[in-house]
């Protein structure tokens, strides 16, 4: 088992948003993205993955395949890796996103519970 404190990964910089990796293993990476007001993550994709985002602090505008949606603390979002994704802190306070990026397993080895 490994434990890390979330607040240790909430680093804000005036110059640009920050990315702080918490865990990375077996095709999965978990990290925070930290934004000051006005900072944004450019549009991008993660082919072959699933993206899960929890808004830990603050909020802003999430853009998925060109559709803008306001998100705030406590919102959970799932995006397919083929969808284009972006985020902008449109609020007045810092924002932190907790991101879990997973590879899609080979269905031949999937099992049901």
From TrEMBL:
**Ranges where the Cupin type-2 domain occurs:** 33-98
On the tree of life, the source organism's domain of life is: Bacteria
Q: Quote the Gene3D superfamilies the UniProt record gives.
A: Jelly Rolls
Keywords associated with the record: Metal-binding
Q: Name one Pfam family in it.
A: Cupin_2
Entries under InterPro entries matching the protein: Cupin_2, GPI/OXD, RmlC-like_jellyroll, RmlC_Cupin_sf
Name recorded for this polypeptide: Cupin domain-containing protein
Q: What is the lineage of its organism?
A: Bacteria, Bacillati, Bacillota, Bacilli, Bacillales
């Amino acid at each position: 088992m490994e434990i890390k404190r979330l607040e240790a990964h909430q680093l804000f910089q005036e110059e640009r948003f920050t990315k702080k990796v918490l865990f990375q293993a077996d095709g999965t990476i978990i990290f925070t993205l930290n934004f000051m007001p006005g900072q944004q993550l450019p549009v991008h994709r993660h082919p072959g993955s699933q993206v899960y985002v929890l808004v830990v602090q603050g909020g802003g505008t999430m853009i998925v395949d060109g559709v803008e949606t306001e998100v705030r603390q406590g919102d959970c979002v799932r995006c397919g890796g083929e969808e284009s994704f972006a985020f902008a802190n449109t609020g007045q306070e810092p924002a932190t996103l907790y991101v879990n990026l997973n590879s899609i397993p080979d269905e031949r080895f999937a099992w049901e519970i």
